[in-house]
Automatic annotation (TrEMBL):
Pfam families: Pyridox_ox_2. InterPro entries: Pyridox_Oxase-rel (IPR024747), Split_barrel_FMN-bd (IPR012349). This is Pyridoxamine 5'-phosphate oxidase putative domain-containing protein.
Amino acid sequence: MLQIVSQSNICFVSMVESGIKPYNIPFNFGFDESYIYLHSGDEGKKMDILKSNPEVCIAFSNSEELACQDENVACSHFMRYRSVLVWGPVEFIEDPDEKISILNKIMVKYTGRSDYKYSSPAIRNVKVFRVSTKNMSGKVFGY
């Protein structure tokens, strides 16, 4: 399943506002075998929701491709895909060195580099959080 996560460019994080209203937004991310890593500014709707209800579901999908059994029959068309869901509580990271380590994991995913410099104010102000991969499921359909 981590191969599907690795091949995904973004993930979609679902959360619940005020216990009843779903809210879903795209994130870039980093990961390892134990966690999905995310980051954000300290303010805004998503942070308000996560602080009041840290339970999330993270969706990854890739290799989407239209396929069909008969080109002339609409209902024979379907999408092939590979997907993974990860769910659990967000854990906020406060330690500056751990934040830097996690931000580097995110940067490695997108740039292949981990030699970035971070200012003290940037590290102090960024919110870094993770979700355990203990609760993870995946599906491959049509391949």
